[in-house]
C-alpha cells in the first residue's frame, strides 16, 4: 500500500509540476504559416520539462514528496485566495530563494538577472561602488577588507567592521547579496553606512561611490636588499603580474622577500596557487575537498623556496590569501607575521539556471598541505603583531617593521 501511495504521489506531483511550470512558460509566438513548427517546438519543450521533473521525483523519498506537494498546495492557495493577488513566477522565484536561504550558508546565493550581471562585472575587476569586500561573520554583514585606495578605504572603513544599516535600512536578516547590491551604485552618488566597530559606538559614514578598478600587484625594494610585494586581490592576471614583479625585484638584487596579504579578501584559486608556487617547495599547495570526501589537489610549480620570506596577514586576509599563507606556513617556506586571518575557506560554484539567473553554491572547502581546514578557523601567525589603533594617523607600520626584523635575523 505504501509503495502504491508513493508511486501515486509521484504521478500527482509530476502532473502538477509540469502544469505549473508549463503554465509559466511564455507561449511561442509564430506566424500562421509556421504554426506546425511552433507546435512541434513547444511540444519538445514540454516533453523536456516533464522528463526533468521525473528525474528529480525518481530520487525523492516519501517525506520529500510530501514537502513538495505542500509547496504546490501553498502556491495554489495563494493563487486562489491571496487578497492582493501575486505573480506565479514571483512565487516560484521566492521558493528558489527560500531553498538557498534554508541551506544556512552565507556564501550560497540566488542571483536574479540584475545581480548576476553586477556579479560578473565585479569579477572583471571594474565596477561602481565604495570598494570593500563583505562576508558574514557571527550572523553580521562584516567587512572582510576595504580595497586599497578606494572610497571605503579613504573613509576609514576597516577589516572586522560590520554594517549595521545602509541608508538607514537595518541589515538585520538582510542577505549578503542584497547588502552588496544596495551599497553599489553609480559613480558620484552617495551611500550612508552605519558601521559597528568593537569597543566603539556605531558611526555613520557618508561615502561617495566611485568606479572601482582593482590593481592587484605593487612592489618596491626596501633597505637591506629586501623586496616588498603587496597583493590586494587575486584576479585572472595576478599570477602573471606577481611573477613579473618578482623578476623585477630579483633583477635589483633582492635577497629576501615580504609578501603583504593584509586586507586581501581573496579571489581566484588558480592565481593563488601560482603565487604560492613561487615560494614553497614543489608539492601540494591546497586541496579542495567535497562533501563525499573526494579531493582535488593543486601543486606548486615551479616550486621554491628561493630566499627568506615573511608573509603579512591580518583579519582581512581571506580565502585565496589564506591558501597562500597556509601553504607557506605548512611547508616552512616562510614566517607569518601579523594577526589572525579571517577564516573564509569554502569554494563556490556559479550555476546558471538557463533564464539569465543563477545560484552560487558552496560545494567544497579548502585544506592546507597539512590538511588543516581554513573555513571558520583561519590562520594564526607565527609572530603576533597587533597594529596600533593610530597607525593610520601616525603612518607607522609596526607589522612591516617586525617583518623586516625577522628577515634581517635570517640574512
UniProtKB/TrEMBL annotation:
The record's SMART domains line, in alphabetical order, gives: PDZ, TSPc
PANTHER family reported in the protein's UniProt record: CARBOXY-TERMINAL PROCESSING PROTEASE CTPA (PTHR32060:SF30), TAIL-SPECIFIC PROTEASE (PTHR32060)
Q: Which UniProt keywords apply?
A: Hydrolase, Protease, Serine protease, Signal
For this chain, the family text in UniProt reads: Belongs to the peptidase S41A family.
Asked if the record carries the keyword Translocase, the reply is no
Signal sequence interval, chain numbering: 1-29
Which superkingdom? Bacteria
Q: What InterPro entries does UniProt report for this protein, alphabetically?
A: ClpP/crotonase-like_dom_sf, CtpA/B_N, PDZ, PDZ_6, PDZ_sf, Peptidase_S41A, Tail-specific_protease
Classification via Gene3D superfamilies: 2-enoyl-CoA Hydratase, Chain A, domain 1, 2.30.42.10, 3.30.750.44
Q: What is this protein called?
A: S41 family peptidase
What organism does the record attribute this protein to? Anaeroselena agilis
Q: Which residues form the PDZ domain?
A: 116-184
Is Signal a UniProt keyword of this protein?
Answer: yes
Amino acid at each position: 500500500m505504501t509503495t502504491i501511495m508513493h508511486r501515486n504521489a509521484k504521478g500527482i506531483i509530476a502532473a502538477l509540476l509540469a502544469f505549473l511550470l508549463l503554465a509559466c512558460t511564455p507561449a511561442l509566438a509564430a506566424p500562421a504559416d509556421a504554426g506546425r513548427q511552433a507546435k512541434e517546438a513547444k511540444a519538445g519543450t514540454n516533453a523536456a520539462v516533464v522528463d526533468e521533473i521525473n528525474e528529480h521525483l525518481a530520487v525523492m523519498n516519501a517525506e520529500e514528496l510530501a514537502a513538495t506537494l505542500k509547496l504546490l498546495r501553498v502556491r495554489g492557495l495563494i493563487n486562489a485566495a491571496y487578497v492582493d493577488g501575486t505573480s506565479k513566477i514571483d512565487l516560484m522565484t521566492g521558493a528558489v530563494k527560500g531553498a538557498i536561504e534554508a541551506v544556512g550558508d552565507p556564501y550560497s546565493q540566488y542571483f536574479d538577472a540584475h545581480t548576476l550581471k553586477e556579479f560578473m562585472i565585479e569579477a572583471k575587476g571594474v565596477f561602481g561602488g565604495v570598494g570593500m569586500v563583505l562576508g558574514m561573520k557571527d550572523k553580521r554583514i562584516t567587512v572582510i577588507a576595504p580595497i586599497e585606495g578606494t572610497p571605503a578605504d579613504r573613509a576609514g572603513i576597516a577589516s572586522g567592521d560590520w554594517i549595521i544599516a545602509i541608508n538607514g535600512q537595518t541589515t538585520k536578516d538582510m542577505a549578503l547579496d542584497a547588502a552588496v547590491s544596495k551599497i553599489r551604485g553609480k559613480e558620484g552618488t552617495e551611500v550612508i553606512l552605519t558601521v559597528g566597530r568593537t569597543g566603539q559606538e556605531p558611526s555613520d559614514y557618508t561615502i561617495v561611490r566611485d568606479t572601482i578598478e582593482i590593481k592587484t600587484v605593487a612592489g618596491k625594494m626596501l633597505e637591506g636588499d629586501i623586496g616588498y610585494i603587496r597583493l590586494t586581490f587575486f584576479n585572472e592576471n595576478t599570477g602573471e603580474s606577481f611573477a613579473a614583479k618578482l623578476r623585477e625585484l630579483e633583477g635589483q638584487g633582492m635577497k629576501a622577500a615580504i609578501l603583504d596579504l593584509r586586507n586581501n579578501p581573496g579571489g581566484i584559486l588558480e592565481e593563488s596557487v601560482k603565487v604560492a608556487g613561487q615560494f614553497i617547495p614543489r608539492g601540494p599547495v591546497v586541496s579542495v575537498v567535497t562533501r563525499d570526501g573526494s579531493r582535488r589537489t593543486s601543486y606548486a610549480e615551479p616550486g621554491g623556496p628561493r630566499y627568506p620570506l615573511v608573509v603579512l596577514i591580518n583579519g582581512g586576509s581571506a580565502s585565496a590569501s589564506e591558501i597562500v599563507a597556509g601553504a607557506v606556513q605548512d611547508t616552512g617556506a616562510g614566517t607569518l607575521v601579523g594577526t589572525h586571518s579571517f577564516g573564509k575557506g569554502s569554494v563556490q560554484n556559479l550555476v546558471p539556471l538557463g533564464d539569465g539567473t543563477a545560484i552560487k553554491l558552496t560545494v567544497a572547502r579548502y585544506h592546507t598541505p597539512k590538511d588543516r581546514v581554513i573555513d571558520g578557523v583561519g590562520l594564526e601567525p607565527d609572530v603576533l603583531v597587533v597594529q596600533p589603533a593610530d597607525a593610520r594617523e601616525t603612518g607607522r607600520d609596526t607589522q612591516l617593521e617586525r617583518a623586516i626584523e625577522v628577515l634581517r635575523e635570517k640574512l
